[in-house]
Fold each of these.
Amino acid sequence: MNTFKPILTEHINQQDCHTLPFYRSIGGYTALEKVLKLSPEDVTQEVKDSNLRGRGGAGFSTGVKWGFIPKDSNKPKYLINNADESEPGTFKDRLLMNKAPHQMLEGMIIAAYAIGCHTSFIYIRGEFYKEYKLLEKTISEAYESNILGQNILGSNYNLDVVIHRGAGAYICGEETGLIESLEGKRGWPRIKPPFPAIEGYLQSPTIVNNVETLSCIPHIINRGSSWFKSIGPEKGPGPRLFCISGCINKPGVYEEPMGIPMKELIYEKAGGIPGDKQLKAVFPGGSSSAILTAEEALDVKMDFEDLVEKKSMLGSAGVIVMDETVDMVQACLNIARFYAHESCGQCTPCREGTVWLVKMLTRLVNGGGKPNDIDMLFEITDNIGGLIDFSKGSYGKTICPFGEAVAWPVRSLVEKFKAEFLEYLPEEKVVA
Amino acid sequence: MPLLKIDDKEIQVQSGATVLETAEANGIEIPHYCYHPALEVVGSCRMCLVQVEGMPKLQVSCNTFVGDVHPDRKVDGKYDMVVHTQNDLVVQERKNILEFLLLNHPLDCPVCDQAGECYLQDYSFKFGNAHSRFEENKRVRSNEYLGSQIVINHNRCILCSRCVRFTQEISGTSELFVEARGYNSKVAALEEKPLDNLLAGNVADICPVGALLSTDYIHKNRIWNLKKQSSVCQDCSVGCNVDVFSQTNQIFRLTPRENHDVNGYFMCDIGRYGFHRFEEIERVTQPMIREGDSFVSFKWEEAIQETVDRLNRAGGKVAGVVSPFQTNETNFMLGQLVDGIIGNLSQTDDEEINYPSGFRISSDRSPNKRGMKDVCPEILEDLISEIDKQNIRTIYILDNGVDRDFDAVWKSILSKMDFVVVQTYRMTMLAQSANIILPGLAPFEREGTITNDGGRVQWLRPSLPIKGESRADWEILMMALKALDNNAQIFTDVSQVMKKMGEKIPAYKDVSFFNLGDKGLSLNGIASK
């Protein structure tokens, strides 16, 4: 067992860990003090050097993203903290908001400083009411202590933070859907280009970062990019909050270094599978990632690259464990139903295709399956989101990655557990 | 300028041009639904996907911009972008998208008004699959009124959102929005604000399928039965370009015709439904002479002779009334017939309506005031004083065709007259006060030119046949001229009048049907007199 000491969640079990006095007592906001004496370019460079990659799902380099903000634009710049955590099997941002809100806020202020932003938003999932109330308190504490507002900590930097609650749509966690929603419009993702860094919120340069991503920032500033890079694989380093749920003895959030073997995560950290049942499959990165068979799962390291090699993704690091008793066809229907319900309805393939999947799977589960259905499931998922195997054709057929988010789990389920799908076919119709 | 290669074609494009627009301009068809040149690009229908070399995903051509790339990165050493619109990947993707679009589409083409001009039909025929692989139940919804004249058939809707964007960007009224989410999404109008703005009819035109329907045309005819005639709207001084669809003696609908110097892609509902005004009117289709309290029909020769006799008897003392509703050629001919005292019927202005997109409905609801002033000798501001001063007792009037009570001015003029000639298509109050009625043509029967308030001369073309004994208005005036003076020039066609007009009015010297074409001719800022 490794001897990794949690970084983001180090203090979450301590009394009043969410308060400003507590955060100050463990050295909170010293990174901010340091940053305010640096140039925004130096801060961006430090984050770039750390190889920090986004914790929301796509895993894009945070520093590079900040660098896309045009230097010569005289429009206002905006930083949006994406706290619309909605991916099934993912509940890490909620923990960070509950237990270490000032850590996140410090990260936000540093990020805002780096991109020249003076008004920043927290777009929080509507259902997170408790967290919303807590963050309101966090922010007023910060204003009272001159951590937000005018001349922050005696510098000449000003920043306001505004909380905006979502109204219950998964798609508003997608950055351009989020921006539309923040503008008071329907949460329909925007076509790119232009990218948000050029034209985002109110047509102004905008950076959208995830809660966990921002929470890493103070530590990178305090301990340096080389320290951060030394945790886990160099190309995608750092601590990571793994959310383990499903058929597991100790479900919960586990902070571990990137690259921890899935086997260790499931069997050592999270206590294995109840009743010593056999592992059947795992979603490694939320329900939008392609599923891994037990064999694949036990062989994979939880980092960006190893999972891509296994034709899946680290995503939101929501690890959903399934044991031998799970009916994969029912699971597939459940997932398809979720995505059909959450499709925004803008793009043709996603709006029409997700419900086609649900209708077909429902018929299959109810005993009305036809031999051709299995092939059709492949075709429909390919037509919604493109192939998983990029070498065989194009992928990404919709404005936002939602198409892939439904296609990949459904397709991988059918592909890897085809026998179970065939079992649902009425007997006489099974082709030998 | 960047060099783009689409399929086998090399095209030099303006930097920043989109692949879709470039392809269209060069005769390469890329199917699309949500893209409309007048609306913001949303890229949601996914129909216009093409393959761009060097990009891993297919790209929506409506939002793919061609720009200069660094010489080292040019494809094949010379192209800034290479696009495939016909390869297997693209062809297959179109099939896929069409399959999705047809899943819940009712395929009720036999009773759909869009049939024959439907992009879902056309693209399915060209690019789609011949068979459906969908074995589930379709989504079925009832039709709804979005406004008093627009109905939506939700089953046919493909959610391209053109109509929603139209109300946001063109009319600026934002009545429409997409309701609910995903599979349940549907176009809806605000409860407290139905789609009743004066541009509402356009949403039925821009709907690429048969989802949005104008109640005025619903189930009235099949598009392939109708004759399409390009013409110009005559309901205000903007002069929107239109297509008039008719069968035998009946107009069924008007749709806007693209002209970026006039109306862009759209027209207003005043003009769109204006043709109905002429359906129930009391037409005048024979020359008539007053005998006592009633009118008696006469042959043209007799009516013209009577007219000319009375004009002769009056000596030079004849007043003429031109009309901003008439063509340039007709007004010009009256100016030839009545030399000197010319006025026009007063007309009250309506409300001027401006839309955020620049679309305009003029306060002047006559089509040709500018042209009328251009082609006539001086038009008197105060006709009544001149009539008094010169003791005029004979008047030749081109009727506006607008039936309304006389104002005090007109009552006073008519009370002084011994003889009134009214050239009209309709038994108006004015016509009823005439001594002779000469039957001219109704607006959709006329041919000639009208000049809009921006100084653009446009070709008004006839969409309906002439009724009864009626004759072209310019021709009636020519008959009178000929009867007055045996040496007068004979015109056998309106184009000859146009030529004569050009000789006399320098600003109109280039006006000919050939030069006018479909888009009209600007007077190049030559001021009206």
Amino acid sequence: MKRVFTTIFNQIASITLTIIVLSAISLLIGLQLATPKLQAVFKGSRWITVIASTDFFRSRVFIILLILFCINLIACTLKHLRKTVALFRVSAMLQEDVTSASWMTSEVIGGRDVDNVLRVLTDAITRHFKKPKLIRGGSGIHALIAVRGRYTPLAFYLAHLTILTLVIGVIVSLRGYTYYIDMAEGQVIDPLAVLDNNRHEKKFDFALRCEDFSTIYYEGTNTVLKHQSTLSIVEDGKKVKTQMVDYGTPLNYETIDIYQNRFVNLIQLARIQVITPQGEKLLYEVKNGEIFRLPGSSLPIRAAAFRPNSLQLLSLSPPDRLWISLQPVRFFQPALSGYQFTLVGYVSNEMTNLKIIYDPSKGIIWYSFLSMIVGFCVMFFFSHRRLWAMVEKQAQGYIVKIGGSTTKDPQSIRKTIETILNELKGSAP
Amino acid sequence: MKNIIIYNVLTYVYLASTVLYLLYVLFRQKQIGQIATGVTCIACAAHVAAFILRWIESYQAGMGHLPIRGPYECLTFSAGMIVLMYLLIEFTIKTKAFGAFVLPCVSVMMIYATLNSGINSRIQPMPEVLQGNYMTYHLTSCFVGYGAFTISWAASILFLLNSGRIITTSNSLKKVFVPSHLLDEISYKMIAIGFIMFSIMLVTGMFHSKIVWGRYWEWDPVQTWSLLTWIVYAIILHGRYTWRWRGEISATLSIVGFGLSVVSFLVGSGLVSGSQHFPITG
């Protein structure tokens, strides 16, 4: 049972699986991206119609591949964890090195005193590599081991784990929300309240005040450089923070970030002309959300939504909608179809539109990103190198075996070993 | 606009150095190689100057932004990055053979940027949606990444030429090339640099996407092409560690990865359709 489990675990943790899964993911992405071009080339083909109608990024296969990739990443990290922990124990290192040295050589040298041999060897290794650690064996075999870049294998975990935390961060960010709010100059929203993704109201224990807002244009043109607003956070009647925000510079306070979005020209009051079935002309002045009733009809109509140059009317019972503008229009609803509606004027007010973002994963993603880059840099440009030497007494003298392993540039470790051996021969103890 | 004049002149200088590098590879004359390097060094210095000048001129024009926006700036900046990286490699490993592959790419980019009437060379205002620090890091890392992938591609082509896989290369021609193991190492290191840069580009792009769209990932064509390129290079790096993909396999895959990065560049810089769609502000 344990063997079966180990085999399955090894398969799941293998980098072969990583490559297969990544290849499959890239194949699907490539297919999705190439579909419009393929459609143009293979017009009317049945299989291309099937492909074109599939959204691969939201398909089950794609999601399964992504999950498999995450599982593989975790398993691979766990598998290598044991090996890396072993790297911190010198004896375990030595055991591994003797069996998997990148380069190894041996030399018989003279000398009567083992301590003298070890001292000369230690000096040579220190000079050309790093000061080694001595392990005295009970059976007359002594070993020296030196490690450079001891902690570099940890970069592997950093890089892999941070990819995982990035994915987790993106998933967690779905719990956040983006809410848009319009504010006039000098307006205070007390307390600041927003709607989350589930349309639930969230109230904060502070108020937001819009001090002013302005548009900056590129010199001598009508092209907008940026929109900006000066906002203040007010707590208990005191301004605790005042900052100018624009599209890329937010005001951060507690858990939210407030960005400038755009300016809107919001209609405050609309003048609507209604021509009754009898030809009578009536003029109404309505505010956003206000309900009014037409003469000779008890049906309530609400001014539901204001847009520049247009206004949406909502017949509440029976329900019907109608966008009115400068041209006369009628409801489809038979009860109201005799009335003509025209927007004849409005009083508008320019307001700043702010974007309030709550992102619970901002920190996770930011630190994961930094750690990932550090991990990649260490992984790609720093090596873990080990050099060991074993000294054994034989009839003809002392046999010195020197070996080494490295994660990068095996030629350099070979040269180091050769230099140490040559030096050892030159100064035979 | 002085910078445009410098960029126009640079196009011809790069063409001249392309010819010189090709002549060097064909005739193996040391002097030709030295002239080629000298011309490229001068061109690179002038390129950096033109870039800084354009930056200053953008402030003088009241626009003030890093000149890496739009097809013209994308092409000229990428060409500059490639030349800069190439020269670093040339001086590090003391070889000029790369120039015969890298400089033609640079020339094509510069010709397309400066001689194509469809590309506007004037300094354009930076749209509000593309402003912000994330975008600066995003675009800079992106073009450094493309530069690294181009060098990796050139190293891979040279590797395959060395191995006689593409064409049968004469021994005398091989003399101007670098040893295969060194080419393989350069290709790997450049892929590693490009991969790190693409990672920075992807994540800073995600942060910007969050501000603009409210979501970190949007499956936008540019994001998706970049992700695809990143995944392919991740596969190459994993294969190198696990299956010891070295030599011909690694070189071939590096060329495939470069092909994808070219598509990603064309889509991202707005040279082909599928560019990022941003909500209109204002």
